[in-house]
TrEMBL record:
<keyword id="KW-1003">Cell membrane</keyword>
<feature type="domain" description="ABC transporter">
    <location>
        <begin position="6"/>
        <end position="242"/>
    </location>
</feature>
<keyword id="KW-0677">Repeat</keyword>
<dbReference type="InterPro" id="IPR003593">
    <property type="entry name" value="AAA+_ATPase"/>
</dbReference>
<keyword id="KW-0762">Sugar transport</keyword>
<dbReference type="Pfam" id="PF00005">
    <property type="entry name" value="ABC_tran"/>
</dbReference>
<dbReference type="InterPro" id="IPR027417">
    <property type="entry name" value="P-loop_NTPase"/>
</dbReference>
<feature type="domain" description="ABC transporter">
    <location>
        <begin position="246"/>
        <end position="497"/>
    </location>
</feature>
<keyword id="KW-1278">Translocase</keyword>
<keyword id="KW-0472">Membrane</keyword>
<dbReference type="GO" id="GO:0016887">
    <property type="term" value="F:ATP hydrolysis activity"/>
</dbReference>
<protein>
    <submittedName>
        <fullName>Ribose ABC transport system, ATP-binding protein RbsA</fullName>
    </submittedName>
</protein>
<keyword id="KW-0547">Nucleotide-binding</keyword>
<keyword id="KW-0067">ATP-binding</keyword>
<keyword id="KW-0813">Transport</keyword>
<dbReference type="InterPro" id="IPR050107">
    <property type="entry name" value="ABC_carbohydrate_import_ATPase"/>
</dbReference>
<dbReference type="InterPro" id="IPR003439">
    <property type="entry name" value="ABC_transporter-like_ATP-bd"/>
</dbReference>
Amino acid sequence: MSSEILAANHICKSFGGVHALRDVSLSVSPAEIHCLVGENGSGKSTLVKVISGVHAPDSGEIILNGNKYSKMSVRGSIREGVQVIYQDLSLFAHMNVAENIATNKLISQNRRLVSWNDIYQIAEEQLARINVSMDLKSSVEKLSISNMQLVAICRALSLDAKILFMDEPTTALTKKEVDKLLSIVMDLKKNGMSVVFISHKLDEVMEVADNVTIFRDGNKVGDFSGRELNEKKLSYYMTGRNIEYSRYQRSTKDDGPVLEIKELTRKPNYEKISLTVRKGDIVGITGLLGSGRTELALTLFGLNPQDSGTMLLNGKEYRPASPTQAVEAGVSMLPEDRQTQGAYLEKSISDNICAAVLKKISGRMGILQREKQEKIAQDALTRLNVKASGIHANVGELSGGNQQKVVLGKWIETQPQVLILDSPTVGVDIGSKSEIYEYIQLLAKQGLALILISDEIPELLANCNRLLVLREGKIAGELSSSDLESKEASETIRGYMSEGKNA
């Protein structure tokens, strides 16, 4: 008898003539952490939806706990011990922690009468299984994303999960939160559970994976032991090409400041921040959650006005009262959360690209000139290498990387003098990340002044020629271009972030 808890054999799936999966097979053993990796759109999530009964395969078979299925239902997959935690977590925002953990179990038991004692007992038992304490009466909508993840895990455990699929679970987490989640995943394995971990964050894959299945364009590239892979091999198998991030070197000779920040303060978010950004600069700002980095960016973009301090743009006082005033002055910002703050997911690429420049594409009577709009959108689509059926495709249908390119293209159309990028590659696959880096560096070489906010140290080292590290709202350290090139740069940054050696 096979020792596999799951075998998906020769799975094929198409959508409207587009092959999402071509003859893909996957096997998972008990107490195994199996990682699925590949660029956005490579077929990882589609395979999970076939196994969990969301999509019916065109052909192939699924074997769970020795039982064969030509297609699976959602209810059937749950009976077999399959649980999936999607990126949106699918929690009930209006319910508390205990209700979210216990509700699905109570429904599965067809319970007509339920006591609050039952609900809290179920929740307490599942939180204890992952060694986490939490206020069971807290509203889920008030929790951090990290704690929402833990609630979703407990909900899955309450349903006697044997194999847990986690789809990009670390996208919105800080490094500390990621470490905590990965530790819990390892503990689940020790207790006999199989975990299928879907990610394109290669460092996380190499940290936890027993085995890895790599996808590209709907095909399975191969199965590998986690021990035999390194970041370079993973990148190559995922993309079909060698990915190397070139180190940015500022070449602009004009050293005059474009943006100057002097003693900027907004308590309790940040205090006495001073910074100069020149043409051709990519100035990095980093820090842990709560360091004030995003709050500072929002002040620069006309939100969260400062309490004191001054800002100068090309030598003139700059104090925007709104994002509209910021854009008109020459400052644009790519926000931290593209899906809720940056993109109109239900609108077309064309509408998104031109959303911030409606005056530029309108005639005298304020009527949009569609021909002009479509030309701007098509030029941006080509320049940023957005993979889409055309400019009329809905942005919500695109991969994360292509959505981010569209949002970036929107702000470039405003022709800014200063562009703020807040976490520009969160949830972006490695191929798109490389392309975004290349474009950011090209903009800087053309003389644009950029501020790059990120907690990904490799991203900062590859793209920035100067870096500020914030801790608890204050500058904890500054690194010059030569500092960033040193072998100790990563450790220096981490030290400033955690120890707070205030400058």
